[in-house]
Amino acid sequence: MTHAEETYGGPMTGITVTTDGLPDWLAPVVRAAETVAPEQLSRFLPPASGHGRQSAVLILFGESGGGPELLLMERAGSLRSHPGQPAFPGGALDPEDGDPATTGPLRAALREAEEETGLDPSGVQLFGVLPRLYIPVSGFVVTPVLGWWHRPTPVDAVDPAETARVFTVPVADLTDPANRATARHPSGHQGPAFLVESALVWGFTAGVIDRILHFAGWERPWDSSRLVPLDWRA
User: Fold this and answer.
1) Which of 46, 47, 88, 129 has the smallest CB count inside 10 Å?
2) Chain CA centroid to CA 63, Å
3) Is Transcription regulation included in the keywords of this UniProt record (predicted)?
4) CA distance 166 to 124
5) Are strands 90-92 and 53-64 parallel, antiparallel or unpaired?
């Protein structure tokens, strides 16, 4: 692995972004994070006006007996924003998180992940940040923060009013062509989707996963003509 480190002070002292000590299988993700352009990740980019609510998500990679895996959660069905949708842990920046252009997304990603899943942030190594993206339907400007779960701790839905469940997905399942499809929104919008762990991962989360798999060189040929409606279990 390459060696890069940046340490931030402030309320969450000792927060560091470093690639030191990462498992070799994460090297393609590190390279992708260092080279990918915003428009290569999504056609929805932050408004030039600067409008939008600053937020961050934690894209947390771990490893178990089944190999590399990714942490996801399912949002509570009662939420006003993206109800019932599988997602990365994350949320809006708070004032105490700091500068949205530097330290804020790092602190927000870890804080929100702890609040939503109960994980111990001290067991997470932040190793990269992807370009900021935009979710038009909710007006969020999202900074994806990459993490390595070097010391896993138990996770579960902390507040059922916000989180329905927390689960991990093997990367092998995400790359399996049998689990891939194109989700069709009632509005007509279509985008990549994953049918894993009894869930349909779609929208922003699936789009980011799709691009990570592609630029990390992990993507396997799959049938994008296979359409799945959002109510696929109905």
Assistant:
1) 47
2) 16
3) no
4) 17
5) antiparallel
**Could you tell me whether strands 190-196 and 180-184 are parallel, antiparallel, or unpaired per DSSP bridges?**
antiparallel
Q: Structural domains in the chain?
A: 5-169 (3.90.79.10)
pLDDT value of residue 1: 35
Cα maximum dimension of the chain: 49
Q: For residue 215, what are the contacts with CB-CB under 8 A and spacing of at least 6? A: 28, 32, 35, 36, 40
Please give the backbone phi and psi of residue 117, each rounded to the nearest 5 degrees, phi first: -120, -15
> Residue type at 13?
T
Beta bridge partners of 86: 74
What is the predicted pLDDT for the residue at 3? 36
How many CA atoms, within 13 angstroms, populate the side-chain half-sphere of residue 173? Answer: 18
Distance CA 12, CA 20 (A): 20
Neighbours of 15 (CB within 10 A): 18
Which pLDDT belongs to residue 86?
94
* Gap between the Cα atoms of 131 and 134, Å rounded: 10
10-residue mean pLDDT profile of the chain (234 residues): values are 41 73 97 96 92 95 94 78 82 92 93 96 96 92 97 94 93 98 90 95 96 98 94 67
